[in-house]
Amino acid sequence: MNDLYLETVYTILHRIGKKESSVSVGSVGGFSGEEQLLQYAKSAFQIDEKTHKALVEKALSEKPPILLLNVLLLEARDLIAKDIDGFSDPFVMLGVIPSSSKGGEDEQHEATNATGGSQDSPEEEQNNNNSSSGKPPQHRRVLQRLSGSFRRKAFPGASRREKLEAAFEQTGDGIPARIIKASSVQRKTLNPKWNEKFQFVVGDCTDRFHLDIWDHDDENRSVLDVVSSLNQVQGLKGLGRYFKEVTQSARASSGGGGCAGGDGLVDDFLGSLTFSLGEIPSTGVEQWFNLEKRSEKSEVSGQIKLKMWLSTREEHRLSSTEEQRNDDFIFLDDDADGLVDVQQHKDLLRQFALYEIGRKGDPVCAFRGQLPDLALLILHQHAIQSDLTELHQMMCQWLAYIQMIGMGISFELIYETFSRLVGKWKPMELDKDEEYVLADSLLQFSEFCRSAILRHRLRIRVRSGSRRRSPSPKRSELESFGEMLKCYKLLRESPVFAHLVPYQTHFRTEMRELLEKSANLHFNAILLNIEEINKIENNSKNKENNAINRLYLLIHSLNTTLERSSKFEDIFKQEMSEIVNYADIGYCTFDLLLHEHIISELMSEGCSDLRAITQLCHHEENSNNIEDEQQILLPILLVHLALNEFSGYRNILMTGTTGHFQYRMEQLDWSAHFDRAIQRWLEFAQVHAFSRLDLSLNLDCQSPIILINNDIRQTVSAMDACHILEQLLFIWERLRVENMQLRASLTIRLVIKLI
């Protein structure tokens, strides 16, 4: 934690970018003071004052980071045509001009003496000074010297040309990377497009960026020779001597005839640009710049589009420990350095998020990623100093927030974060190590979602055998589950996942397998729960009914699951209607598992197995065992009612479908068993009903009339008769006698004997 805080302090102390203007980063309205940023970081990390001062002092003692200028050369338009065919072959030379200092002023003086004054006339130089944008005259002259040194010259002397070619061969085929760099040549166009990136080491933020655009001449490589030979220049003073040599050679070649521009030179100059690095905001700048003239005689038109931003690089990674380190100037490996920056940015974002959640006191799920301006500014500075692209920053947000899932972070926030990541995604923008980290996070989140889908039915699991159902899942839990499904679908169908985690099972197939496994897992959990209940409530009196009771508890629990699964069905319809049919997969899986369970029980040869119990339905009536028979019939009728309810969900699924799917439970024909059990139950019900009415008639003699209210009076027998009829009709409507003749006969018997 101290190392991360030290990095944060170091970032604050070495802010980069234009500080006078507002910083447009999210809701950041302006640049905050250094002390405010340090105080916020101290509060967010919960660092005591002593440790804070020690780490600030340590950060101040560290070497400042190396400032880098990143230039993305995009395109130019409306350039001057220099070739006879009406086109040009433009290329760009660009570099950084050090700011004025003592050494710099000496070098400027040397460069001026070397060239013998301006290559333009004094009047032209005066006009240029007057037209410059507020720059002092001496600054303008330095720019003219640098711009002039980029001119394409014609060298008539073979010795001079051979010398430049030798310098070029010593540097190899590459373009020098120390001071001045050159772009590729765009052939026959006045609107070139480069899209090339360059990076320069900047000595100070007051340095200036300068570029020249030239028309390439295949017969004369002098400008490329100049650029290549600059690799041999050591220091600014050497650069001045080199410009002196080039200028003197150019003057020797200019005494002859005229040329384009009328200044006695082979002038293929297309325009230039100078931009102060201090004007670059921390967010960078991307815009069209008007090309500038070198002199009044220079013919220039058009604009150039650049994207420029500043970043930093540390010589070594900061550590809060006092271990010995080598102070030599050694850059870290690019990949390792990038991974450390990503890790630090992710941890910093997570720390600020946790601090804001705790400070506000709201539930974690209420956090929507909104951070205060100070936090955003620190994160912004860390990102640009680490040269993290927008994709890197989206990746860090994703990594930070998925680590907070266990704390209850909102899946809505995760969905929005990953959506932005997908929007910024560009293949090959991340290096391999960064892709591995992102791929691993995608796999971890995918596994989390798979596990949640597998066990989502356990949220609605109830105690089997109890008619009292547990409360439905809270709305927030259902909403969270729906948001998680939405995230998972986005992830699995995204180009990011397809690129980083290839060769995965098709999403539709995977979801179907997950829901089938989920139903299987829930079915086994119900069986395990029933076995535990059976061990607790088992006794010798109802030992023979254990099999049929367990079957009833199983079917009853499945019915409860199917009833309450409608809440999840709505979510799946909303988020994955085109992927899976939640209700159909769940019911078909339960149907298959229930059928296999019943077949397994029927094949058992134990004395209390399901087969032996169902066979009792067909035994002849035995007056000596009426009580035992009634105890057997009751659980059988409960199973019958439960199966009817279970098949009712099947009918709902088949509504509106064409054809007929053969469910496994349809193959199990127990109609004869249940018809016989219903017939015997109705006989017992009639006996008990008349017995109850006889008792009620006897009670009428003791209290003949019961006053219900001022207008209604009833006897005890009348009230009992109504209750008995209501209960019998309620049960009769739910019983299903498959034999139509038997059903008609039983209905007539029920009506005649009771009415």
TrEMBL record:
GO terms for biological process: exocytosis. GO terms for cellular component: secretory vesicle. Signal peptide: none annotated. InterPro entries: C2_dom, C2_domain_sf, UNC-13_domain. Residues 111-120 have a biased composition (Polar residues). The keyword Signal does not apply. Keywords: Exocytosis. The keyword Protein biosynthesis does not apply. Residues 98-140 are annotated as: Disordered. Residues 50-250 form the C2 domain. Pfam families: C2. Belongs to the unc-13 family. PANTHER family: BAI1-ASSOCIATED PROTEIN 3, UNC-13-4A, ISOFORM B. This is C2 domain-containing protein.
